[in-house]
Amino acid sequence: ILVDSCVGNHKPRPGRPFWNMKTDDTWMRGLAAAGLTVQDIDYVMCTHLHVDHVGWNTRLENGRWVPTFPNARYIFGEREFAYWAAEHARTPNPVIADSVLPIIEAGRAELVQSDHVLNDHIRLTPTPGHTPGHYAVELGKGWTQAVLTGDLIHSPLQARYPELSMRADTDRAQSAATRRRFLECHCEAGTLLCTAHFPSPSTGRLSRWGEGFRFEATAA
Fold first, then answer.
1. Residue 137: pLDDT above 80?
2. Is the domain of 1 the same as that of 107?
3. Structure confidence at residue 21 (pLDDT)
4. Region 108-134: what's the mean pLDDT?
5. Residue numbers of the domain that contains 53
6. SS3 helix, strand, coil % of the chain, rounded to 5?
7. Distances (CA, A) of 159 to 45, 162, 182
8. What is the full DSSP assignment across 123-136?
9. End-of-domain residue from the set 81, 112, 143
10. Measured between alpha carbons, how far is 143 from 140 in angstroms, rounded to an integer?
């Protein structure tokens, strides 16, 4: 199972020079270092459909975008996909065009509710605000041992001050409310938070800090 696929290669992102038309093998080398090939991935779970979370969903092959992980089912939130598909219909979005729609067209996508249960150990939990259909991925049988947060939280500072929202959030007020509710739920519960944008080490646990929370990093 792979959660979020980063930026990808050969993707035209002229507004983001660092990500534009990358030809970097770092991400694939990281997959190989974990002992995996693209054929080994059974599920690709996209917490949301932003540019830096869907890029390796597809790769360029003979001028066409094809699924990078040929054996995988790609799990898209139904509400998330509907929102971005409607936006794309109004104003074409290259991210949707090259990293999302080819998965739909290849028949590899599953559109699910944001509280979908994949199996006894893996389930989604809705965490809207950063995007309308954003979800986090909970791991653990019977209780939540770890959560992959996606972009619910971008910085340890947002643990201390949950009401700090990102400019990129679709709904900043909802993002703040979702974040506080999530942090309250997992504070001092022993849950391992696996974040997407924190500096390394990016995994850790929460403790109380005044009216906010402290993120205590761990090597996992």
1. yes
2. yes
3. 97
4. 97
5. 1-112
6. 30, 25, 50
7. 24, 5, 10
8. EEEE--SSSTT-EE
9. 112
10. 6
Q: Which of 166, 137, 146, 163 is nearest to 154 (CA)?
A: 166
Work out the percent of the chain whose per-residue pLDDT is above 70.
Answer: 100
pTM over 0.90: yes
Report residue 73 as tokens: 């089912």
Say if CB 196 and CB 177 are below 8 A apart.
no
Q: Could you tell me if 132 and 201 lie in one domain?
A: yes
| Contacts for 152 with CB less than 8 Å, ≥ 6 apart | 127, 129, 130, 134, 136, 175, 178, 179, 182
Q: What is the pLDDT of residue 142?
A: 87
Three-state SS string across 61-104, please? ECCEEEECCCCCEEEEEHHHHHHHHHHHHHCCCHHHHHHCHHHH
H or E, element range at 138 = strand 135-139
Q: Which two tokens stand for residue 189?
A: 């519960």
Which CA distances in Å does 138 have to 117, 152, 177? Answer: 10, 13, 19
Q: Give the C-alpha separation, 217 to 220, whole Å.
A: 8
Q: Using CA atoms, how far apart are residues 6 and 53, in angstroms rounded to an integer?
A: 4
